[in-house]
Design a protein that fits this description.
There is one protein chain. The protein is 52% helix and 4% strand. A two-stranded antiparallel sheet has the order 1-2. The longest helix has 27 residues.
Length: 165
């Protein structure tokens, strides 16, 4: 039980630090990031945006949340798998969803290297990807699914804690 709380607190702190909406970028990661083949620069008056897909895919967060919830109810491993997948995705070089890529033409993908071979949750991300429009980035799907799985895990921990009182 204590391990779950520690994992949950660590995961929330990582996700909050990644999704911080500070108006002044504090590192080179935020000031010059690569998404796909396009490089963008955040200026001092730009920041990350809450509900980013409200125009291009208004149901994105609802779909991700409901799919994650449905899969979470069927498999208890979903929450830790998504958090670990997100951690490995952001471990080196930023949170770019590169851990989701498959090997091609003899080029070994990030998911196939030894530290990542035991990762789980790829099927969860694939199920979510199949339900949202192509305008939602894989990186955002992974972050939102990890966030939602932590919230679901927290609801269960809270429910059990209250039940024990």
């Amino acid at each position: 039980m204590l391990k779950k709380w520690i994992l949950m607190l660590f995961s929330v702190s990582v996700i909050l630090s990644v999704s911080s909406s500070s108006s002044t970028p504090s590192s080179s990661f935020w000031s010059n990031s690569l998404i796909g083949d396009q490089t963008f620069t955040l200026s001092a008056n730009q920041s990350l945006e809450f509900d980013f897909y409200r125009n291009s895919c208004p149901d994105a967060e609802r779909i991700i949340r409901s799919t994650t919830s449905q899969l979470f109810r069927n498999q208890s491993i979903v929450a830790p798998a998504l958090v670990r997948l997100q951690f490995h995705n952001c471990f080196i070089g930023g949170c770019d969803a590169s851990v989701l890529l498959n090997s091609t033409n003899g080029v070994e993908a990030e998911k196939d290297v030894i530290p990542n071979q035991s990762l789980k949750g790829f099927d969860v991300v694939d199920k979510i990807k199949s339900r949202v429009e192509s305008v939602v980035s894989c990186s955002d799907i992974l972050v939102l699914a990890a966030r939602d799985s932590i919230a679901l895990e927290g609801e269960i921990v809270l429910y059990l804690s209250l039940k024990l009182l």
